[in-house]
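explain this:

___
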Amino acid sequence: MRGRVLIYDNDTKRGVIKDNKNNKYDFHIGEWLSEESIVVGKEVNFEIPREDAINIDVKKRRNFVKVFVEWGKSFFEFVCRGRD
């Protein structure tokens, strides 16, 4: 399921995630899987087998520029290989 971090209290290590249908789910930092810090408003993927959100991870997005540069670099190396 996808949602966003709505609230996070660093003192209690608890927060709330809101999904796309405006349902809210409590979570504890122990369920945070990502190496990234918890940031209010951050888009996340999570599971809800019960009332609390678990297995929370930051949604990964590929940066278009990075993808384009990687592709261009590979293409350039391929083209230059035939010119030796």
In short: The mean pLDDT is 82. The chain has one domain: 2-81. Residues 27 and 53 are 5 Å apart (CA to CA).
